[in-house]
Write a structure and sequence with these properties.
The chain is α/β, with parallel strands linked by helices. The chain has a single domain, classed as NAD(P)-binding Rossmann-like Domain (Rossmann fold, 3-Layer(aba) Sandwich), CATH 3.40.50.720. It has ten helices and ten strands. The strands form four sheets. Strands 3-4-5-9 form a four-stranded parallel β-sheet, sandwiched between helices. β4, α4 and β5 form a beta-alpha-beta unit. α1 packs across α6 and α5 packs across α10. It is globular and about 55 Å long.
Length: about 290
């Protein structure tokens, strides 16, 4: 998950942390105060023997997707961690109009349909339950973070980069003209900073937080922003929802219905300010534009 990479970079710049990064080792972490261990959580190797035998202020889990993956980690090293921070998703809420806070109703677990996205969402709910139960048994405090659509540097999901690459290569950019959808974003740097605030913070213990900026963004606003960041107009192609579905255009956000989330609980409790969407996306635009221009 690219969020883990950005967090490692940000945390390494904060002199208060020594990081022990456990991942598959695809991206070497040549950072100060960061030690990297190559490990696949699905392997049979015991993670408790891999990392140093010490007590850790927090374990941050960016990539638990299937039931059992959290419990197995806690069983292995639960006695050596004080806090387990789990990245869930804001998509666990039943879609509804307006901004959804942490008290909104969750997607049901019984309607299995074999859809990858739906299975991902339901498994995140199951993992949240697994986390609270396993932590209660082991005496570990937990924190759940539910981000909305994450954007920013190193994002390998073809979301904002899908449009920026088209702009860079001077190809027509789809402009959805009949979609009422609105969605929430959160800047990856904000997630990293929020994580840093959570570590060792008693007010974060046994709590769940949405992470989402306050703006409701539409496709029209998104394309308009890209044009401002580009400093000049680019070719656009107006399309309808029906055309997108017929042509299977890979538009990365909802075509119909809102996906809006209220991230103010975290902002209030930690005196936290989210980066304005236009500011964060302009920085992101410049990074990807430079990448695609080389």
């Amino acid at each position: 998950m690219f969020t883990g990479r950005v967090f490692s970079i940000q945390a390494s710049r904060n002199g208060g942390f020594n990081l022990h990064v456990v991942n598959r080792g695809n991206f070497p972490m040549d950072l100060e105060r960061v030690t990297q261990y190559k490990y696949d959580r699905h392997s049979l190797e015991d993670i408790s023997a891999l990392v140093p035998d010490m007590t850790y202020d927090a374990l941050v889990d960016f990539c638990a997707y299937n039931p059992g993956e959290i419990e197995s980690i806690i069983n292995a090293i639960g006695g050596r961690i004080k806090q387990y921070i789990f990245f869930s998703t804001a998509s666990i809420y039943i879609p509804a109009n307006g901004f959804l806070d942490e008290g909104a109703a969750l997607v049901g677990l019984n309607a299995e349909d074999g859809n990858f996205i739906n299975d991902y969402i339901r498994n995140k709910i199951r993992l949240e339950h697994e986390l609270s139960q396993a932590c209660a048994k082991s005496g570990v405090k937990y924190t759940i973070l539910r981000p909305s659509f994450i954007y920013g540097p190193f994002n390998y999901a073809p979301r904002e980069s899908y449009f920026i690459e088209l702009i860079t290569k001077k190809q027509p950019v789809p402009l959805l003209i009949d979609s009422p959808s609105r969605f929430s974003f959160v800047y990856v740097i904000d997630i990293a900073e929020a994580l840093i605030k959570c570590i060792g913070a008693e007010r974060a213990y046994d709590e769940a937080f949405n992470l989402a900026g306050g703006e409701a963004v539409t496709y029209t606003q998104l394309i308009s922003g890209f044009e401002r960041f580009n400093k000049s107009p680019f070719e656009k192609r107006e399309v309808t929802v029906a055309q997108v579905e017929e042509e299977k255009l890979p538009l990365p956000f909802p075509l119909t219905g809102d996906m809006l989330y209220d991230g103010q609980k975290f902002a209030r409790m930690f005196d936290f300010k989210y980066t304005p969407f236009s500011e964060g996306m302009e920085k992101t635009f410049k990074v990807f534009y430079s990448l695609f221009s080389t």
